[in-house]
Design a protein that fits this description.
The complex is a heterotrimer of chains A (about 400), B (about 80) and C (about 180). Chain A is mainly alpha-helical and about 400 residues long. Chain A is about 75% helix and about 0% strand. Chain A has one domain. Chain A is globular. Chain A starts with 6 loop residues before the first helix and ends with a helix. Chain B contains 2 helices and 6 strands. The chains are: A mainly alpha (about 400), B mainly beta (about 80), C alpha/beta (about 180). Chains in contact: A-B, A-C, B-C.
């Protein structure tokens, strides 16, 4: 029973119906309307956007730091890890190494931070997700849920569209990008409202390669706080620059923005907390097993001597192409499982600052974590997946190579 | 006087006269159509998108798309 | 009737409504043949357990992006379902545009004028009885975030039915027309 009307006929009918049923009284602009105007006009909106994002970033850093440094480093470092080491001291060597870690860490003369140095599944393996990353992702998920629910994100998209459209991206791209900073998995899903296949593919490829997730950011904030600014700047240059390149070389269209801008809404706390909790739950389910598995693999490779063999094999390649020491090998081995774990395993004390910086960039660009890769399989077709992987490999060499050359030129 | 939507000034009001091409269908569900009052809410600089209001619903439109909409302004 | 689809434009409070209807048992599912997630749950309707699905928001049935495309595909697959068309009461015109499209396609529709509080603050009054007479399908008013009007919505879902565009055209404008005030 289809009785299709044309667009005009349908609107005529709507007009007639509303004339009889809807009465529109005088409208007094409210404070909400005023705020809506201020936050989307360029002169006032851009400073406002910077203030909002800076405020949330500060909150994120403080919140995560409060739990990690103020609490969990002590719990794990002075209570849990030494207690566990004593309890399990009688285990055979291989089991002790995998579950607890390197025995040298528990020798009298060791003065370092056992949270990271131990390396075992029940020590470092639990400390990283529960002591550091959980609090970082929790803070990010909370902040993002607030941005989403108040209706601020579409306005940010409008403000950024001016710049983004010039390089062929959609202002809306800021939405999946921000969500990816929490976790890349929902970030990939958030690309769906982009209009063409080309736009979606470009965005997903850029997200997968250049946008670090909350877990990684949490580890960086903990381990290399001084480098975060440089890491973000480099990744942003890659994201924008190669966004421009992809837009030029890929066939297809990049249509302009056409988007509803909803009114602001007071956040519904029950909804925000539910959303934050659901995403955190997802993190715990997906991330923790892989971190534990990663720790087990690394320790097993160490204790069997396989890690040394792999590192030896990669040494020349890593040193010439990227200028990264072979001691970064364990990070690369587990990088495809979990990037937060990979960053946690970087031998920071034995590397120069510049080497750490390069390694963090490479690990971010490196193969997306398994959960994200599973999302790519769902959202993209085979050609696009191969394209994404090719892009990723190219980017590793471009960024690794360029940063290495810059380092050599600067003598770092 | 008729002008393109993209040429309307900040806070200027008018009546939508014509929407060209397939934009007409694409934009219909958002409430923007011929004969409706439309108000320019904001314009982004250097050819960025505009935000317009129709029946209190705000919509952001890229400037190239806004070129396809003709508006009657002034009395 | 074995399924209830929640359809509506973006930002009309559809998800909040879904959470109320489906309660805690909601799950994210994957629609066959696509890769897009949607929320699915159960609700009790006339003593029977039925599926309730939160269809991705769409401005019209002529999709302009992938999310909207999925919404339209889901609708096409569920021909026999009861379609709750959720409308922002302060933006009735564009909401009715989608409602008419749904009616044209022959779906069993019930209209939910949600966010009634927003419309009230904006001095917008909707004559729901008259609207119901003209459209020939049930029209209810809700404020989903406060849980208001949901009982009526659920109790009247059974009355959802297809309506003819021609008869709507006849009833409108004709000062009462065939309307029968109840």
């Amino acid at each position: 029973m289809e009785q299709a009307l044309t667009v005009d006929q349908r609107w005529d009918l709507v007009d007639k119906i509303t004339k009889e049923t809807v009465e529109v009284g005088a409208y007094e602009p409210t404070l909400r309307d005023a705020i809506a105007g201020v936050t989307v006009r360029p002169l006032t909106g851009i400073p406002f956007a910077i203030a909002v994002l800076y405020g949330f970033w500060t909150f994120f850093g403080e919140f995560a730091g409060l739990f990690t440094d103020g609490f969990f480093v002590r719990i794990f470092g002075t209570h849990w890890i030494p207690w566990l080491a004593e309890r399990l001291a009688g285990l055979p060597d291989w089991a002790f190494v995998i579950l607890v870690g390197d025995r040298a860490v528990f020798a009298e003369e060791f003065l370092g931070d056992s949270c990271f140095a131990a390396g075992g599944v029940l020590t470092t393996g639990l400390f990283m997700p529960f002591g550091i990353v959980l609090w970082a992702v929790l803070a990010l998920f909370l902040v993002l849920a607030i941005l989403e629910d108040t209706g601020y994100l579409p306005r940010l998209a409008v403000l950024l569209d001016t710049v983004m459209h010039k390089i062929g991206l959609h202002g809306f791209a800021i939405v999946p990008t921000l969500i990816s900073l929490g976790c890349n998995v929902p970030g990939v899903t958030a690309c769906r409202p982009l209009e063409t296949r080309k736009q979606r593919f470009m965005m997903i490829a850029l997200l997968g390669v250049f946008v670090p997730c909350g877990a990684q950011i949490g580890m960086m904030e903990e381990l290399v706080p001084g480098l975060i600014g440089w890491v973000f700047l480099t990744l942003a240059v890659g994201y924008l620059g190669f966004g421009w390149v992809l837009n030029k070389i890929l066939p297809g269209e990049s249509p302009e923005i056409l988007m509803d801008v909803p009114p602001y809404q007071a956040p519904q706390w029950s909804n925000i907390l539910r959303k934050t909790w659901m995403r955190t739950q997802h993190f715990l389910l997906v991330a923790v097993p892989f971190v534990l598995l990663g720790c087990a693999i690394v320790m097993a490779l160490y204790t069997t001597g396989a890690m040394d063999a792999i590192a030896g094999g990669l040494e020349g390649f890593l040193a010439t192409v990227f200028g990264v020491p072979a001691s970064a090998t364990p990070s690369l081995v587990v990088g495809f499982l979990r990037k937060d774990l990979a960053i946690g395993l970087l031998p920071i004390e034995t590397m120069t600052n510049y080497q750490v910086f390069k390694s963090v960039i490479l690990l971010t660009i490196y193969f997306p974590c398994l959960a994200t890769f599973a999302m790519l399989l769902r959202e993209l077709n085979w050609k696009e997946i191969l394209g994404t992987l090719g892009f990723l490999v190219a980017m590793i060499f471009v960024f690794g190579g360029i940063l290495n050359l810059i380092g050599m030129a600067g003598g770092w | 006087m008729e002008k393109k939507l993209s040429e309307m000034k900040y806070e200027e009001e008018g009546i939508v006269k014509k929407i060209r091409g397939d934009l007409k269908d694409r934009i219909a569900g958002m409430g923007i159509r011929e004969g409706k009052e439309i108000k320019m809410m904001t314009k982004q600089p250097i050819k960025g998108p505009v935000v317009v209001a129709v029946d209190r619903a705000n919509t952001s439109i890229g400037v190239g798309l806004a070129d396809k909409i003709t508006v009657e302004v002034g009395k | 009737m074995n399924k209830v689809l929640l359809m509506g434009q973006a930002n009309v409070g559809k998800s909040v409504l879904f959470n109320h209807l489906a309660g805690a048992g909601a799950t994210v599912s994957n629609y066959p043949g696509t890769t897009v997630d949607f929320d699915k749950g159960h609700m009790m309707l006339q003593g029977k357990k039925v599926d309730v699905i939160d269809v991705p928001g769409t401005f019209s049935l002529q999709p302009k992006d992938r999310a909207e495309e999925v919404a339209v595909k889901m609708l096409e697959k569920e021909k026999g379902a009861t379609v709750v068309c959720v409308i922002d009461s302060s933006k009735v015109e564009r909401g009715l545009y989608l409602a008419l499209e749904l009616i044209e396609k022959g779906h069993s529709v019930i209209i939910d004028l949600n966010m009634a509080d927003v419309a009230e603050n904006a001095n917008i009054k909707v004559d729901t009885e008259r609207l119901e007479d003209i459209l020939g399908v049930p029209v209810v008013t809700t404020v989903a975030i406060r849980g208001e009007g949901l009982k009526e919505l659920v109790s009247r879902m059974g009355e959802a039915m297809p309506a003819g565009i021609e008869s709507i055209t006849k009833r409108v404008g004709g000062k009462g027309g065939t309307s029968t005030h109840s």
